[in-house]
Amino acid sequence: MRLLAAAFALCGALIAQSASSATITTSVNGTDNIYFTNWGSTNNGINADVTGRGNDVTAVSDLSGAINFATLGPVMSIATGSVVDAGPTATDADGGVGLFNGLTVYSLIGVWSSTSGSITSIGDSFFVGKSATLIVPTAVSAYLFLGENDGIFSDNSGAYSVAIDYASPVPLPAALPLILAALGGLGIAARRRKIG
Predict the structure, then answer these.
(1) Which of 10, 66, 135, 144 is the most buried (most CB within 10 A)?
(2) What is the DSSP letter of 69?
(3) pTM (whole model) above 0.85
(4) What is the spatial distance between Cα 8 and Cα 6, in angstroms, rounded to a whole number?
C-alpha cells in the first residue's frame, strides 16, 4: 500500500510539472487600434478607415512568433505606463470616464483572434485595463491582440508596457505511459490482495 501511495505521488509530481509559467513583456502604443481593419466595429458610426485611425495591431508574440494561447490556461496581464490620448491629457490603462464601443474610453482593450496575421475575431473586444485575468476561448487557435480604445488616434502618443504571464506546456516524460500502466498493475495487485 505504501508503494502504491508513493507511485501515485510520483505520478502526480510528473503531471504537475507538465506546465511551467512564462512571462513576456509587450508594448502597446497609444496609436494601436484593434478596429483598424474594421473587423466588425464601426467606431460609433465612424468607419475605421478614416484619417487618424491609428495603426494596425499585431498578435502578442515572443521570440518564436505569435503565441497561440489556445494550448495554455488563463492569462494574467499587468499594464503599466500611460498614453496621451485625450488632447494633452494622459490616461493609464484603465482609461477615462465614459464608454466607447461599449468599453471604457481611452483604456487598454483586447480581442481574441483565430488567426495571427490579422484579426478574425473570436467574440467581442473586451476591457483589459491595468490588471486582468483573461480567459482563453475554447478554440483550436486563440491569438491575443491589444490596443487603445479610442476613435481618433492622431493626437495619441506614448505606450503601455504590458507583462503577460501564461502557462507554457512542457512535454511529459516519454516514460509516463509506462508509469501509468505500472500504477494500474499495482492497483489491481493491491485489490486482489485485499479481496483474497
Answers:
(1) 144
(2) G
(3) no
(4) 5
